[in-house]
Amino acid sequence: MKTRTIGRSGVQVSDLGFGGASLGNLYRATGEREAAEAVAAAYRAGITYFDTAPHYGLGLSERRLGKALAGFPRDSFAVSTKVGRALDPNPDPTGSDLGSGGFAVPDDLVRRWDFSADGVRRSIEESLGRLGLDRLDIVYVHDPDTHADEAVTAAIPALISLREQGVIGAVGIGMNQVAVPLRAVRETDLDVVMLANRWTLLDRSGQELLDTCADRGVAVVAAAPFNSGLLARPRPPADAMYDYQPAPEQLLAEVNHLADVCERWDVTLPDAAVQFPLRHPAVVSVVAGLRNAAQVAQFVARRDAAVPPEAWAELES
After folding, report:
1. Per-residue pLDDT, 240
2. Is the pTM value of this prediction over 0.85?
3. Angle, nearest 10°, between helix axes 293-304 and 32-44?
4. 110 and 87 in contact (C-beta within 8 Å)?
5. Please, which residues have CB within 8 angstroms of residue 46's CB and are 6 or more apart in sequence?
6. Which stretches of the chain score pLDDT less than 70?
7. Residue of 43, 49, 56, 242 marked catalytic
8. In contact, 81 and 136? CB cutoff 8 Å
9. Does 56 participate in catalysis according to the annotation?
10. Half-sphere exposure of 110 toward its Cβ, with a 13 Å CA cutoff?
């Protein structure tokens, strides 16, 4: 597994990253043993970058990840988590977070947007406690879609201060859109952008952001390379999802065209989807959600699959 450096921070990440949403029971429960085995399998396969967030299972993902990594040397892996969603006691629990948050966990806590400097510091302290770590390698400001001003003027400066104190190694922003991260790259001293769904074999709307990051020495972590599952099979099913919604017919036609190209060159669509983001010079890692050891092995195999230059010439045209 190759490792790459996050900008000027010195933080190193493997070129494949472990997405920890499933550790928090995204959409359905993941067993304790299954979760631990997935993390261990990733580490053994050379995946040493692990991403999580308080949002994922109301803290469950962080607790499980910290426990699973506890037996490995601290300097041998990198962990990122996120700030922006404070976790407060829920005054009116329903018994499950599935309906509101999408995670199969009890909703004894509730999320509250908080991008203030004090909120950032509290969030990091709580994350460190759940993870059982004394420092974090990367911290992202998480989904400030309607809080861009506060993210740029309060949350990111607070993270930069913590970076200068050595509490965190690198400062980032993580989103499913381009405009706010582009503003943050231009106006603040970011180290890294985590861009989900917008730099994939199908959706290349992140081009300007990635090119700007490359020019400024800001690293990019490309998350969700399968576009919510649309690129996860050799051919998309008719009921495939895109951006967590049913994929429109025009988009399905585009994916089937990409699949046609892949088949002509004896390549599978998911293999190309995993490898495509790393072809941009700004991208240091591709992160996918991994629920079990079998998915880890498949993810690594897709990165290692042979894709001839002629296939890339057609796929990228």
Report:
1. 87
2. yes
3. 30
4. yes
5. 1, 14, 16, 300
6. none
7. 56
8. yes
9. yes
10. 9
